[in-house]
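Two folds, back to back.
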Amino acid sequence: MYKSVEGWRSPNLNMPMNIATYGHAGRTLLLFPTAAADFLEHERFLMMDVLEPWINSGKIRIFSVGGINREGWLNRECHPKVKGLLQQGFNRYIAEEGVPYIWHKTGGDRHIITVGASLGAFHAAN
């Protein structure tokens, strides 16, 4: 299965962010991690092994992003206002950095299906 990992320092979050890509073609999925996990969480829990037939056949291509939940929503020492501002930065990171990155890799303005569980579902719905 094709896999690549790329990353950069996000100007919207002022922190390094990574994206793992699985597959070479197919419907585009943007995968958000749960709770305090990172961009490789789903691979560690063998989700990519389960999806490997669809990934290898070119039916789906998955872009797995890291999250900010540990720094924000799950951080008991973080003021609620700062949590909200961090979430706004994450939303901008996805819209202004993540989506253009995916479009660049997929060859254009394609429909992206957002996917996640737990707090990842919250991000996918937004």
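---
second:
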Amino acid sequence: YYVITKRVNGKTSLRTAFRVTMAGQYFNSITPFAAGGQPFQVYYLMKDGIPVGRCANIIMVKSVLFEICVFVISVVSFIFSAGILNRIIGKFTMFFIIGVTINLSVIAFFGLFLLNKNAARKVVDWGFNLLGKLRIIKDLDKYRKRKEDELEGFRGGSELILSDRCVIVKASFYQILNLLLQYAIPWFMLVSMEGNRKYFFEIIASQAVLREVTAYVPSPGASGGAEGIGYFFFRNFFVASPIVSVILIWRIFTYYLNLVIGGISLVFIRSKDKKESIIIEHGKAA
């Protein structure tokens, strides 16, 4: 977020990037389809003085890069391990095709908004309406008058970020590193619980496909779907450990910690903001 926001807006802070990240982690974890994070991410970007059109652009670019990186990792790891995966996991290729199809559909959906001005207008309208319903923006009519300016900001931000290959490569590197660390968690669990150092690429591929298939399960944190499909995958790697325990530990690392750390971080940030606003008000009064 820091790399993308700095390029689109010209300046930002690591604190804002941290806020935006924590908001996404927390609110995506507690809402169906992981759809609650983006409005709050826009809110925290706006608090840093960034116009809402550019905020929408930043979130959209990050979403596209995220989905592309998920796709690249799943395809590359599948190429290296397709034979073994199809042997130890029944119908794995079917899961892979389903996951990649969903992933490409989402990429096309987000890409449409980045490249099409009319679609971008709908995004900004949707963002204004949602922020108004959530009472994050109180005077909705006042902001609607600035819609065209925000649309120009959205379009300008898209042209800026898409023309800068260095920023795209840098942001993609960080995103791929982040995803690989997440996907490798079951492998580290396998090493620590059973001493088995095999199946690194196979676990990476299975985690990528698992993420693609369960990302849009209509329950907070993909609850139910992630555990069910995770059981189908993990039982083929963990042969000496209780699978229920494996899934529980895996979900603690990949889901419940998002809730705990994300929630604590946002509470701390909010309380710090209140203290700063009080200090500013006292300074003005003095």
